[in-house]
């Protein structure tokens, strides 16, 4: 069985775009792979220095994945910070990472660019954690002999860097000690549209949070922006935000039937929104209930992550022992 691994940034409660684009496909992949999914809390430290915030966001994101159906008996579910071998591997990989490679990383380059445009020093506000982020990510991945890394396209460059670093290590020691990982692209069509018709994203403030209460969910759905077509007019499902969200939660039959109602005319936007609300609410209600139960028992979530991390440490310790021999520090 192939190994699938991905890191989850602790960003608090996800929205339905994260669910459709990241959580659901990762859980689907876990059915056919050995999955290792972890909370990337040390990655979060680069940007967030508030301990309470990190604790809260970690619990919320862990509860969210569990509520969406992650089974910790089947998926190795752990916290990066509880697997210290990650950081040992990072130090090893540092010696195989050209500084020039880090200079080319998109996230770093974007910050430098923004600094220069606003007349600041080019490295203003850039910490070494941010600069070396791709090496930590390579360590996350290479530590577990990962075959597949399901990620969004914004992460492809990081996966390529992990491949480069692994190849450089392997070339030096003459054998494939580090498995070369492959990125698995999320389908771009799975990018959900937000309330205003732009991509659903926290930074646009146009999201539908996964576990919004029924009343909140209703209000948000009613806020989705539509055009000014009259009830009678036939409507185009392909350019409609309501339909775009609907098809990700409805059965193929439901989707077909709503498509026909759009094309036939005689359906108001309000009715379309009611249909969307019904399907969304039916899908999300059991998840919301599980989430609320989990988040009220933070000790259970912590225990799950601790148990997963203990198993992850066993695997990681074996790998590090082997690598220590390879490099001559055994
Ligand atoms: N950088 C990833 C993100 O921003 C999170 C991440 C950290 C990750 N380590 C990883 C993803 C390892 C895949 C593999 O979403």
TrEMBL record:
Q: Mind listing the UniProt keywords for this protein, alphabetically?
A: Ligase
Keyword Ligase tagged: yes
Q: What class of enzyme is it?
A: ligase
Highest rank taxon of the organism: Bacteria
Could you say which EC number(s) this protein's record lists? Answer: 6.1.1.2
Designated name of the protein: Tryptophan--tRNA ligase
